[in-house]
Amino acid sequence: MSGIENSGGQAGEGRVKNAILIAGPTASGKSALALDLAERSGGVIVNTDSMQGYSVLDVLTARPSAAELARVPHFLYGHVHPSVAYSTGAWLRDVTKLIEDGTFSERPDGTFSERPDGTFSERPVIFVGGTGLYFRALAEGISDMPEIPPAIRDRWRYELKEQGAARLHSILLREDSAVAMQLNPTDSQRIVRALEVLDASGRSIAEWQAARGRPLIDRDSARFMVIEPDRAELVERIEARFDWMLDKGALDEVKRLVALGLDPDLPAMKAIGVRELQAAMAGQMGFPEAIERAKIATRQYAKRQATWFRHQLGPEWQRLHPSDGAALPV
Q: Which end of the chain, N or C, is more open, meaning fewer C-beta atoms within 10 Å of its C-beta?
């Protein structure tokens, strides 16, 4: 049985008790709320955003600053190299390891708070980010997936580069028609994922997905919050923040990322702003146009996030305006 399915140890049979989950679209102010609650409660913050887990893109993914990181313990920020296609399952395994290592059980001074029954209370754990699938996995569990040997992973990525997504889709159609029929022939990442899982395990990815794991949080004691800013206000915040990113070195980050010579289909290479600024640096468009396109892409992404949260998060999620955060109890 995998670590995700049975994460054992502390935090109540492997589940984090009294967790706080804060979701919201990009630039909505969720990180500031998490920092405020963590400082007031002596808690820790766990990144729940797929892009903020990548290194190199400190500024362009709006990761907390060095000063903010120093104020309270933060985990799973910038710990993944951009050459890695980081997944929801990988993130969940990283959270599981934090639980098993006792990371959430220590007080800031290194001591523990003992309950009358002899067990130890955990530090408040605040999960904050904009990746809906991470929150779903955390609260509901996801199916575990087999480890993919590097040789198999490299093989299918090489085949993708040599033959293209449509050809690999035809291979998948022959080997696993049920899965292939659910995928667009141009969806290269999902096609490759299905093929490598089948190659590594001998089982369809659909079989793996059907076996759901267990949640990592105790839902009964958790607090669920989603930030819902006014649309006009969010647009202003997005535009101001991208200008700030440029001032703080976003262009240099893109240069460092491009210098790695990575596959353009990798998730990190699709971070908003990377392709636009890369095109401007290559002379394919002017910088003003690239900046405007990046801002438009960010607004569109925020709209998709807000729509997902509105339709996918249940009634247990407290809907908040950014200004409501200061009044929240810890």
A: N
Residue 1 lies in a domain: no
Q: Is residue 5 included in any domain, yes or no?
A: no
CA distance 141 to 14: 12
Ramachandran sector of residue 176 (left: φ over 0; alpha: ψ -120 to 50; beta: rest): beta
Sign of CA dihedral 143, 123, 125, 267: negative
pLDDT (tens digit per residue) in 78-137 = 999 999 989 898 999 999 999 888 888 765 454 444 444 443 446 899 999 999 999 999
Residues 50, 55, 61: CA angle, nearest 5 degrees: 55
Provide the number of structural domains found in the chain.
3
pLDDT per position as a tens digit, 28-69: 999 999 999 999 999 999 999 999 999 999 999 999 999 999
| Cβ proximity of 52 and 78 under 8 Å | yes
11 touches 105 (CB < 8 A): yes
Domain holding 237, by residue range, is 232-306
What 35-41 contacts at long range (C-beta under 8 Å, 24+ apart), as own/partner pairs, is 35/64, 35/68, 35/71, 35/72, 36/325, 36/326, 37/124, 37/126, 37/325, 37/328, 37/330, 38/71, 38/72, 38/124, 38/126, 39/71, 39/72, 40/330, 41/124, 41/330
Q: For residue 267, what is the DSSP state? A: G
Q: Radius of gyration over alpha carbons of the chain, in Å?
A: 21
